[in-house]
Write a structure and sequence with these properties.
Layout lengths: L1 H13 L3 E5 L8 H13 L5 E5 L5 H10 L9 H17 L8 H15 L3
Parallel strand pairs: 1-2
């Protein structure tokens, strides 16, 4: 893994622009290995490299990111929840793929999806 990480860093440094995307860090079963890789890449200060990763706001992940000074944005604010709720309601009302669902069922769907989304 050490050689692969070094090789990756060497390649990134030769390129003009590199974007690295990842989703669901909180679901990663090999978190320690992933974090080891990412922290080495971050510390290498590859000017051409940009990161974008998503995760639920787990404390260990937040602490790890903060320890390296990696900029982060918390999207689990109430504004996000309101946006999700608005989107779900609009889809239930306007999307022809969904049958007309009575008010009680509609509220249950809205509440369940909004709560389970946890701002994501």
């Amino acid at each position: 893994m050490k050689d692969l990480t070094s090789c990756f860093i060497d390649i990134v440094k030769t390129l003009e622009e590199v974007r690295l995307f990842g989703d669901g860090f909180d679901e990663c079963k090999e978190w320690n290995a992933l974090w080891s890789f990412l922290s080495k890449v971050w510390k290498a200060q590859c000017d051409s490299l940009r990161f974008l990763f998503t995760s639920r706001p787990e404390r260990d992940i937040r602490d790890a990111i903060h320890s390296l000074g990696i900029p982060s944005v918390d999207l689990t604010r109430s504004e996000t929840t309101e946006d999700i709720e608005r989107y779900v309601m609009e889809e239930l009302e306007e999307n022809p793929r969904f049958p007309r669902i009575p008010g009680e069922g509609r509220n249950l769907i809205r509440e369940t999806l909004t709560t389970k989304a946890q701002g994501m």
